Amino acid sequence: MTTPASSPSLSDLVAERVGFGIFVLDREMNVLMWNRFMQDHSGVLAEEVIGRPVFERFPELPRAWLARKIESVFQLGSFAFSSWEQRPYLFRFDHDRPITGGVDYMQQDCTFMPLMREREVIAVCVTITDVTHVSVMQREREEAVAKLREYADRDGLTGIGNRRYFETRLAEEFSRWQRYGGDMSVLLFDLDHFKKINDEFGHVAGDTVLRTMAQRVAGVVRKEDIFGRFGGEEFALLLPCTPLDDAMRVAEKIRHTIGDTPVDVQGEVVSVTASVGAASARPGSNDYEAMINEADAALYSAKRQGRNRSVVLLHELN
């Protein structure tokens, strides 16, 4: 009876049948072995590649990178590994995932194993594992997490940043201002008599007004500005690197952006105005809350003065 240990053909049979690629290279990068997986996915038969430099048949391979990997195994006599996250693939093999998976070629993990004889590395065995499914699943998971994070930062009605997002960014910008100095201002504004709009036209119309106003303002602010809904009909705009006098010009621009054109809500013309309060970061401030409180006080001053105006408290100008 023939035992597995005494049958060298069994190892060849296993190498042919396993569900991953196996090929062997010598120090000159000549192919010494090429299993069925490699044949099936490359379309190149073993007899067409064995005994020849691997780059002769596959010139698209990353020559310098692969040569360094192989040489390091010869020199160190230890395993090496390359994940698809570091290099998505070694060979441009087709995959069986749907096109919607977002990958062009089979994603591959590669292991480089020294083949030793009398403590000397005589060749390197490279295995290719198809991890396309894993990579697609991970990408989908990362995209889902990114969307959840985005949704967590967005206001559900208007689509702009919510209060949590705004205050997080404000804290970051305030810390930067504390380190490097310069200018930073903030505007708080809300829509005048918004309750009256809801009472007269209904909450659906009120929601439409809020969305429209948010879109209008978002369309005129700078890319580096941070715009968010503070709650209800109140909004906040952080203006990095902006002195108070420039912030007041932005406040007037926003006020006119909101008030110059009424909102058409299902045939109803709804006039909207806004009151704006401004404040800036001042030397000696330990936290951003003082700036927010001053802008809030300025906003209420605008309300008391008759609404539809931009206000900054007098002590801010000193």
What do the pLDDT scores average to?
A: 89
- For the termini, the CA-CA separation is 102 Å
CATH superfamily of the largest domain: Reverse transcriptase/Diguanylate cyclase domain
Total number of beta strands: 12
Summary tags:
318 residues; 2 domains; disordered N terminus; 22% strand; alpha+beta; 5-stranded antiparallel β-sheet; Beta-Lactamase; Alpha-Beta Plaits
Topology:
Layout: H1 8-17, E1 21-25, E2 31-34, H2 36-42, H3 46-49, H4 54-57, H5 63-76, E3 80-82, E4 108-117, E5 120-130, H6 132-153, H7 163-180, E6 184-191, H8 194-201, H9 203-218, E7 226-231, E8 234-240, H10 244-259, E9 263-265, E10 268-270, E11 274-280, H11 289-304, E12 310-312
Parallel strand pairs: 11-12
Antiparallel strand pairs: 1-2, 1-5, 3-4, 4-5, 6-8, 6-11, 7-8, 9-10
